[in-house]
Design goal:
The strands form two sheets. Strands 3-4-5 form a three-stranded antiparallel sheet, with helices on one face. It has a two-stranded antiparallel ribbon with strand order 1-2. By secondary structure, the chain is α+β, with helices and mostly antiparallel strands. The protein has helices spanning 2-68, 85-99, and strands at residues 75-78, 81-84, 108-113, 118-123, 127-132. It folds into two domains: 1-69; 75-132, no CATH class. A hairpin with a 4-residue loop joins β3 (108-113) and β4.
């Protein structure tokens, strides 16, 4: 049994030595942390700023790419006349807004009847109207 006692004593001595070493090093480690902390905070702030700028640049680039896509211009032709569908949509929205100024257009369906020189519209699946062209 004496070996067990020696091992236990050795463990206690090593443990005490480790605690003492930690206590001796602790102030210098804390000092080093305090010295490095402002530089780390500055680096984090700079990284966030750079990431925000990069994010904005990505958003602008994506917006330009969406705008750069060629939007088709669609015409309806009948006999010797033609109308832009875009103009008919704008006229339908204006007609609806004049009749229902407080209702927001969330859905618009346009039915073009060139033989009648008219377009019928349904707004928000509730309101219907007619415009002529």
């Amino acid at each position: 049994m004496p070996k067990t006692k020696n091992i236990q004593e050795t463990v206690e001595e090593v443990k005490a030595g480790a605690v003492k070493a930690v206590e001796e090093v602790k102030p210098s480690v804390e000092k080093a942390v305090e010295e490095v902390k402002p530089a780390v905070e500055k680096a984090v702030k700079a990284t966030r700023k750079t990431a925000a700028k990069a994010g904005e640049k990505v958003k602008r680039t994506a917006a330009k790419a969406v705008k750069a896509e060629a939007a088709p211009i669609v015409y309806v032709q009948y006999r010797d006349d033609e109308e832009k569908v875009e103009d008919l949509v704008a006229a339908a929205k204006a007609s609806f807004a004049a009749e229902h100024p407080r209702t927001k257009v969330t859905d618009l369906r346009l039915y073009i009847k060139p033989e009648e020189r008219a377009a019928y519209y349904v707004v928000n699946e509730t309101y219907a109207g007619r415009i002529t062209f």
